[in-house]
Fold these 3 entries.
Entry 1:
Amino acid sequence: MSDVTTPQAAAPTRYIPSHIAGDAATLTPLQRELIGRASELGPHFAERAERFDREASFPFENYADLRAAGLLGICVPREYGGLGADFATYVMVAAEIGRWCGATALTFNMHVSSCMWSGFIADALEMSEAERAEHARIRALHYRRIVEGGQVYAQPFSEGGAAAAGAAPFGTIARKVDGGYLISGKKIFASLAGAADSYGVLCTLERPGQEGRGTRRDSLYLAVPAGAPGLEVYGDWDPLGMRGTVSRNLAFKDVFVPEEARLMPEGLYHQAATRFPHMFATLSPTYMGIAQAAYDFTVQYLRAEVPGMPPVKRRMYPTKQIAVAEMRVKLEATRALFLQNARDARVDPDKDTRMRLYAAHYTIMESANDLCRLAIRTCGGQSMLKSLPLERLYRDSRCGSLMLPWTAELCLDRLGRECLYEGGERDEQIE
Ligand SMILES: Cc1cc2nc3c(=O)[nH]c(=O)nc-3n(C[C@H](O)[C@H](O)[C@H](O)COP(=O)(O)OP(=O)(O)OC[C@H]3O[C@@H](n4cnc5c(N)ncnc54)[C@H](O)[C@@H]3O)c2cc1C
């Protein structure tokens, strides 16, 4: 066997991590530019990540950087002063942020979702002309707060019951009153709790004669300002991973919001959830970034290029080469599905596209954790010391497939059913 270790004899002597999109040449100029902005902020995020993780505190400094870079308005349409990023552009930027700080990327997703759902997703759905005009008026107020005021929106959705899995109406109720709505209920795991300027709350609109009840069609998406009377942030926050998300609980006791709080017209959220399923697939880009970070760390570690570590190389052992090759195979397979999914997002995707979406979401969430596991096993004992980022990546990566509405279990559940049943089929119809 030749002792030539790489095909490129004149290659640089330090490892150069891959572009998050694999081949940057395939990107649009806007995609290249925005991913580039995130990469420039990245090293600062990485430097601060250990502190936010140790303290379980919110990454305010990172948000100041995102604000200064104009990235808070990434998915605000251009006509409202934003950067007008589409789904594919956003998920690649989110993955690049996740590569440096998972908690920042995950919370950034909650903020950006408020712009995507009210922005290009709402635009793709059916509305009357009057509804569309009213939605344009209202979203302009929210987008101005984000683009000019630098405000941040959270997205409390989970309640601890079946609603966040899409299996029941939200238990948080919005009652129509003069000039707006009164909200009552509670949310758990509200990332950015105590840090957001507004909370984009999913509730059920109470119809006349249906006290405290409603159907999933009555879901309503309302922005509640952080200082609204009757809103309380409560509970401890000391979790395994994603500690910088500060995902505490929220209680709403007759919280009044004006009609301008509607981030989507009444009835539109249900249409979005049934017709634009990619809206739920924006949590996984964070974990694509973590997967890339775990791989990058492993290569740097084995090449003795991790700052602060003794210059002891371990790359010459065949076991390490095989392990890193397995990691690369998993990383490339994950990235391929991630990129395909980024391109697939559209209203009314066909069945194959929807199944690919579940497969992609599942694969990214599970591979991120598996790559971190392989990274620790391959690098060894010293690599899991708290002075290095790998053990945090490992803990953060564990959180992805727990997140509703599409936990790893629920992705398999949906996928398995759709693999074996065509629309409307029941068992008794199968011979
Ligand atoms: C770091 C972090 C940040 C988060 N941030 C947010 C946020 O900003 N906003 C937000 O709304 N939520 C957020 N969440 C919450 C998250 O999306 C889930 O709602 C939460 O993790 C669910 O926890 P649970 O134990 O209550 O799940 P449960 O509802 O008790 O479910 C437990 C498991 O049972 C399975 N299951 C649930 N329902 C069904 C069903 N109908 N059929 C079959 N199986 C089912 C699922 O696989 C699930 O993993 C966050 C979670 C984490 C870990």
Entry 2:
Amino acid sequence: MPRLPSQYRQCVACRNLYFRSDLFRIIYDRQQQTVQLLQTSKEKTRLFGRSAYLCRAMACLQTAMKGKKIQKALKTSIPDDILICLNDALKGNHPGGYTESKNL
Ligand SMILES: [Zn+2]
């Protein structure tokens, strides 16, 4: 595994590197045994566990869902409402760039 610059994370679907704040972060919290979605890195978290990152492309969400890539990265199943939430967040995106929605 090459070392990644600390501010960058890899999308589980397209494997490109993105700035952390541009990715969705899905965390499996070992202590509570729950899966949580963080939409921006600004949300503070004290969760401990595995994380999977997904870029803000609908194609990547579809790839991730089809290949169960998030589940594999987290080594657990993820609730449908997380996928629905991701889907809803991406639907509002304009192609060619995203603007941070205040409604998230
Ligand atoms: Zn991606």
Entry 3:
Amino acid sequence: MTTNRIRFAFSQPTATQQETHETIIIGGGMSGLGCAHRLRDHAQPFLMITPEIGGRVRTSPDGNVNYGAYYVTDDYQWTLPLVKTIDRVHITDGLFHQQDARYRFRSLRMLKHLPAMIRFNSDLHHFRQHFNAMNEFAGDFSRRHLIAADPVLQQAFDQPAEDYIRQRRLECLFADFIDPLLWASFFDSPYNVSTFFVLAASLPLIVPMHTFVFDTDAATKGFRDRIVSDSVQHVELGEKWHRVHTTAGRMFRCRNLVFATPMNHTNRLLGPLAQPIRGGIDVSFYHVRGQLRPRYRGAMRNFFTSDEATIISRERDGSYLYYYVNDQIDKYFESYSVITNDHWKPALFFHGKEFVNSQPAPNVFIASDHDMPSMENAFLNGRYTASLVLRPARKSSGNTSRIAVA
Ligand SMILES: Cc1cc2nc3c(=O)[nH]c(=O)nc-3n(C[C@H](O)[C@H](O)[C@H](O)COP(=O)(O)OP(=O)(O)OC[C@H]3O[C@@H](n4cnc5c(N)ncnc54)[C@H](O)[C@@H]3O)c2cc1C
């Protein structure tokens, strides 16, 4: 499948040569970029090996439509400079579907949920304060320790969302509105994840969100010539040097090796150092041009409950994105021609409470979105990993006990 992926010119050693580098970053998604930016800012030498830049921030061949990460919010401090925001995403543009019923966010149907909506809104504001306070430190401490340092976050992390929804009497609000919105956000039912992820993924209800175009030039500024366009096939981890072998037959040697690939790939490369990881969520999508059936027309987005596991979004160029678990494209489209059909396997890691050890061995580092998904959180995790590379003597379990929300 073709995408508008960046290709980089660089010196290509022959298969028999072995380049030596202080640090190699494997992967050019937001985690790898976060790591690279911090190393660049500290004038530390590194090489990035990646088949493309962006990873799960992926754009259609014509550059108009995002197939992976879809929105950024005004709370994205680190990643907003790496994108050009386009349109504000309004939930009020959406049409919600539940069995035969169709309704809008602002509708009589919402009236009966107003008290629950006010409760949920208030919980979101409270959670956001703690979440953003945590993110102030996320470039320097692990998520495991930051969550443990804040009882509000720890409780949300430990609590199944099902209990939260019941305790706050939000069942009906979730059934009609929040469940479809969250399926569109993380492709699963809120009842299958923790309160933490339900609240984090619901923040766009109170923080403006925007569609965007990824700015690859801004993302790679100052280190384009240190990017090798290749994939890592296998690594040999050593006490002093690590060796990296690529699919193009190149071989590199480094002291510090940063894995910034999705955790399922990282585990494959890590071999015996593989980490226990959370369960992934798979989703598939079509990018099509065509005509929706009449009951789905007239809205920017069609939201469906997690039972139907579908989201359909009309894009600025008139094309449609259709995300699904069970392919029912003919149910929604009267006619269509497929531009792309692909899968994210997995899209996100949401099931479970595992945290990845960012430094599983001396001079071996992991940057990823595993502990906390999203572009911003992946980038922050990359920055955290860079801090470990820069200060290997510092313990990641530094004192976080003074982190507090006013
Ligand atoms: C469908 C979908 C929708 C999403 N929506 C949003 C959203 O709206 N907003 C938001 O903030 N987040 C969203 N996310 C989440 C967000 O995209 C991710 O959390 C984040 O981009 C992950 O970044 P990463 O660098 O950790 O991993 P990735 O982006 O997966 O990057 C991994 C990198 O490693 C490279 N790589 C893989 N294998 C190798 C190898 N063997 N050798 C070398 N390189 C390799 C890849 O090419 C890639 O460059 C969404 C994700 C998906 C899938």
